[in-house]
Amino acid sequence: xxxxxxxDPQAPWVQLTTSAQDWKNAxxxxxxxxxxxxxxxxxxxxxxxxxxxxxxxxxxxxxxxxQEGGAVGSIVGLGSADAINGSHRxxxxxxxxxxxxxxxxxxxxxxxxxxxxxxxxxxxxAEILGLAQGYCRGRGGxxxxxxxxxxxxxxNAIVGGGVPLAAGNAWAQKHAGTADVTVSYFGDGATxxxxxxxxxxxASAWKLPISFFIENNLYAVSxxxxxxxxxxxxxxxxxxxxIPSWRVDGMDPLAVHLAMKAAEEIMRSGGGPTVIEAEVYxxxxxxxxxxxxxFGYRTKEEEAAWRARDPLDRVAREMIAxxxxxxxxxxxxxxxxxxxxxxAVGQLLEADPETAGKRRIRPELWPDVDFVNVGxxxxxxxxxxxxxxxxxxxxxxxxxTKFVDAVASVMDRRMAEDERIIVLGxxxxxxxxxxxxxxxxxxxxxxxxVLGTPISENAFxxxxxxxxxxxxxxxxxxxxxxxxxxxxxxxxxxxxxKARHMFGGENPVPLVLRTKVAMGSGYGSQHLMxxxxxxxxxxxxxIVAPSCPADxxxxxxxxxxxxxxxxxxxxxxxYADSGEVPVGDLxxxxxxxxxxxxxxxxxxxxxxxxxxxxxSLEAVEQTGMDAEVIDLRWLDRxxxxxxxxxxxxxxxxxxLIVEQGARGTSYGxxxxxxxxxxxxxxxxxxxxxxxxxxxSPSISRVLERAAIARTEEVVLGLEKIKRGLGxxx
Length: 729
Prior knowledge:
By secondary structure, this protein is α/β, with parallel strands linked by helices.
């Protein structure tokens, strides 16, 4: 018979409950502060539901009533330099952190609402109403609350979406030499999300000071935890990653506080991440002012049993029993909180002159509509004063350099000059420069700044985003192949790309995302795509696509100077190519939004990027057409060189857009639309396009070649243009 031996988890898993002695031992000032915060949050949430009932909250109002104990208990002991982020149901966490910040962590129950606290309440309410004075200038609303100064990194509408960003913040805290910690709040549903589990693994492997705080409110909208998972004790998730964890009654704020203090000891001493599961209960439905029983998925008896455990009543009862307050004092605390909310509402609303008995938002408080697109990207003012160079016209001495060597050399130079730069991705620290040699030599020189990650694209992409938002570091994230970015699409597009605009338009996101197009290498449908078309139609990103070594140096330097996320696209066909680069100069920048004319001509404007620039030049020579070939270099909507494009079109009156990849995800699709609308009067025929086929490239050498464009396809495109010119001139 086989021998069996029980295996025990690597880290402890603890159920924590308080005793009467714990309440006696608690600092009266701590209990008073918790009671004050609980009532401020409750009054705030009641006001939000009241306004939602009047139709004044545009969008959802995810109330945290009933769950305040988890937020207050875990945040009351944190400092302003400690950080939190959360989910769509995050008003209570944001308010607890903001109130802690402005109050210094202590509240006076006799004078609960200071001027600073009143401002916090009003600005938070204004944000939920979508008003200009809100913390995100009205763009965030109920689900996207951010105030960096207070350590509130931002709540998040994507379930589990903020967790990798919190890990990035924790990485920055640790490597900046602080003892600060980050707490990431999410609900029971997020414990089944890949990005959360990926981040737990990465945080454990790297010993990051992050607490994964699970608010287990038993329901994901109406689906119960028992229906959704085979292990409803959600803190068990920690066991698989060797993370110490606590399970605690979230209706008992002191129990939550004690669990968090124990977790803090581990995190602040370098012991790595922790998990806390707080069992809480939202008294209302997923969204709005009605209880869950109104929708049939909960019973009134269940709701009544949980309401009897209200965290506000629990703290008040314990304080009364300890003679720290009386019923009149508790009533005074509640009245002060409610009065503060009445004052906040009075500043934001007025009687509706068109409907008797109704209120409206004061019209002058709405954001100016001209603000709608401000902050999708920054204004690039950070580039002022940088030394620029146009390599194609420079007169300095040059030498031949391989493209891939230029990639590694410029990163080496920038990392030596700027200690903020961190490189991370799969295998970037091994194989003498990753899978293609693009990080050659970096791991030996900058061992603690070249981070080989687990295969967990959501986690390491989001971690890079969190590092960038922290501001102390400038991450360069490598995706081995572009298709892998779709595994991390939430982090790439919903989080990193939208972060600046969504949270008010001011916070920089200095992140570079490197990847390589590998068409022609035989790696098949899930490795070879060109991501330019999808990124160009997604907000927030800048995009560069160098076609030669000298351009790579200048474009990467500019990308690393920008305060926006920048996608740097490379192509495997170019890695072995050599080109002339300035001797000993790795410091110049190619200005934002400048294309390069690789060949002048008057018959047709050929627009391309990456390896298709050389294929375009070859095709022009084969056809004998007098074509002007423009190498875009900058591809995003905000950075395109329309001056160069327009001047060429006015001369040639014909356009051919050349790219290699699939027609469906084509970059040229939206570019041709823009050109038709901007320059219609100068075009003698429709814009023509050269692309690959509809299918993704296959493994078969023959089918792969049939799916992509090269010189031959550009020749056909030029001949079509020539036929059109014959009939129009």
